[in-house]
Amino acid sequence: MTAEALRALHVPGKPLVLPNAWDADTARLVEAAGFPVVATSSAAVAAALGRPDGEGASVAEMFGAAERIVQAVSVPVTVDAESGYGLPPAEVATRLLALGVAGCNFEDTDHGKGGRRPLDEQAERIAELRRAAGDALVINARVDVFLGAEDEKAVLAEAVDRGRAYLAAGADCVYPILVRSPEILAEFVRTVGGPVNATPLPGGPGLAALAELGVARISLGTGLWRHLRGLLENVLGGIAEGTLPY
């Protein structure tokens, strides 16, 4: 599947569902379950490498993991490229395409300086990424204003402004990560003017409800990794007490 076909799977109300993988083995399981695309979770990939999230792993480590995932599956892969690991956006695009990647997440947090990049700066970075990739990369532009926000309504206007600017700069989809309120998410979807990615969160809308809100893409993010890690912790605790799970 090409980036064009991946782009076509972003349908508001009938979203592309992505259970994010973190290595070749989990990527194969996602494909075997029938999902048409494999997405990565940077936090889960970094944890598997023994590194912290937030670009704590090197670009060589993260892109090496991405390459192994691409080679392990026959479906397209969209990679969580965080904020680009300090590389110029054009180089991020070139390197991802060389790996055979069909899409990427690209966030507006500046991990080197802390905080979010100014809107205009991030829009230009997305435009540079688009110019270098042409149509060969599906760009999912992350909007980070809801991270740690005590009042989601208070930051909604900024989130919409960023989302619109990122779409105008060439993003295919925008991702207001960790927005929790269904009402705020619905307003974002209604006003941003393009495909929206959302994540199901504990106590929040599930897959069907997110589809009803009009999102075009659903990423589980770290959800699958955290769930399975919790199961493993419980199993290991049982083994430590002398009980085998099998």
From TrEMBL:
Keyword Lyase carried by entry: yes
CDD domains from the UniProt entry: ICL_PEPM (cd00377)
Identification of the protein by name: Isocitrate lyase/phosphoenolpyruvate mutase family protein
InterPro entries xrefs: ICL/PEPM, Pyrv/PenolPyrv_kinase-like_dom, Pyrv_kinase-like_dom_sf
Family annotation (SUPFAM superfamilies): Phosphoenolpyruvate/pyruvate domain
Tagged with keyword Lyase: yes
GO MF entries: lyase activity
Keywords (A to Z) from UniProt: Lyase
Highest taxon, organism lineage: Bacteria
Organism: Amycolatopsis ultiminotia
